[in-house]
Amino acid sequence: MMKKEVLKGEERDEKLLDMSVIILFVVFLVIGIVFYVSLSIIKGGDSRNGTGGAVLTGGEKGKFGFGIEEILFPLVFAFFMAGFLLWTKSISIRNTYLGSCIGLLGLGMLSYAFYLRYRGPYSSGFMIVTGLVVVVYLGMNFFKYRKGDDKEQFDEV
Q: In this structure, is the dihedral angle defined by the CA atoms of residues 77, 82, 84 and 85, taken in order, positive or negative?
């Protein structure tokens, strides 16, 4: 039977909720707002007669409204993505490979589910930017916590 031990004096005391999670939340909030606004501009504009206008919550063409649906989508997206990456970070602190694999698998599932609902250049750009942010964050956590895995040793009991 193998027992995992951390070398004495080398304990990992990591705070889960730090500035990086707040920055991630803000980044995902901005990405969600930009996506929803650009998607609504495409749906609201009339390109046949040359008059473009954004109609987000109904009303007259050319008026820009921002209703509850437009507010909730980016907020839920930002909370979900920041929470998901916080969860993968907590896993990565203990096992970097498992945390990174779960993060990439979750990103793949999210991308596929999003692709089933939305298709087009704005949606693809949205998922590419989201994917890049997630991959960079997972990569930073992988290399940060992988250094600590090298110091761990497995001894037989």
A: positive
- The CA R_g of the chain, rounded to the nearest whole Å, is 21
Q: Is the distance from CB of 1 to CB of 137 less than 8 angstroms?
A: no
Residue 77 has pLDDT above 60, yes or no: yes
Measured distance CA(142)–CA(149) in Å, rounded:
10
**pLDDT greater than 80 at residue 157:** no
pTM for the model stands at 0.70
What long-range pairs does 31-36 form, CB within 8 A, spacing at least 24? 31/74, 31/77, 31/126, 31/129, 31/130, 31/133, 32/73, 32/74, 32/75, 32/77, 32/78, 33/74, 34/126, 35/74, 35/122, 35/123, 35/126, 36/70, 36/73, 36/74
The CA-atom distances, in angstroms, between 92 and each of 9, 11, 89, 138 are 20, 15, 5, 9
Reading the block at residue 20, the tokens are 């990086």
Residue 3 has phi, psi (to 5 degrees) of -125, 130
Residue type at 97? Y
Scan for tokens 């993060």, then name that residue. 103
